[in-house]
Amino acid sequence: MTRYSVERFRAAVLRMYLRIALLLTLPLSLMYYLLDATPDRGLAALLFAFFLLGLRWRTRHDSEDSLRYANWFVLAMLCLMLYGTFISNEQLRQEIWMMIFPISFAPIVAARERIVWTAVGAASIAVAMMMRPEVSTAVTTFVHVIAYLTLSFVTLLLVRHNEQNIERLAHLSIIDPLTKVYNRGYLKDVLVGEINRCKRSGLPLTVIMLDIDYFKKINDDYGHLYGDSVLEQVAGALRHAAQRAGDYVFRYGGEEFCIVTSGLNRDEAWQFTEKLRLGIYALDIENKGSPHGTLTASAGFWCVYDTSEITPSAPLLNADNALYRAKEAGRNTVVDFDDIPVAEDESPQAQGVTA
After folding, report:
1. Catalytic site residues?
2. Which of its termini does the chain have fewer beta carbons within 10 Å around, N or C?
């Protein structure tokens, strides 16, 4: 769901590997097939190239779904490694073939699968070398397996370190640095995912837009550093109130926040939104620019039971319209979009219907 993720990185590496493999194997396999004196080897090389071509076709779209074919690519590389190890008469060539395999599977499969493929590779190397007693002894087989396991271990460590950096980047890319809640850029990803999830499960979806009342006066009267502190405290109160699995808090912009949640009916959604408003009021932060003399917030929400026909922008638009009505009503209140007369907003998008 994030713009940067380990899964997307793995999928990108898989597609890159397939491009490189095809660039190398297609011309070489054709040359091998046409010029090699042994037709069976040439045919095997061609079949290997066409297998890679099929995998490249299946992973042509820039999607994490392409990872479904990662293990097929790893299996192909295992066969290539065994073939190279089996036909090589020189120790150096055998080691080069063994180096290819861990580098090929480590960046594109999950952690548990890496352990499995490491063990499969070690066992396969041992069997392949023992089948050639004329070039391998028990000692050389043991040394090769240990060398392979060492290389695999180092490769896995490097890949894991890289994935941790990607996870760190993914976290930074979706978090607002001041309030430590999600940023607006991540909101669309979450809405798309939650709409689809609610569509499958039949759960209602609720989107809340919340705005701090008279926030400009806070900056004018107390300064921007104080205003930043207020935003941090409000975000903390929202996070404290929205702790269920599936609750998301976003800084939408300036002093405006968005909350996405699911599984609440209309009455429960109103109670939850009111809880958010009261939580901010309970902070008891002074705001002499407000008629109440303390910090308050206005909120609007929309609870939709059927998400099969809505676009990601519709819940935001409807909740924002409800927030506008809350401000019109004097602020420090909650408005349900469904309580707004239809005649006041008849656009299909505002009603959550695809135009």
Report:
1. 255
2. C
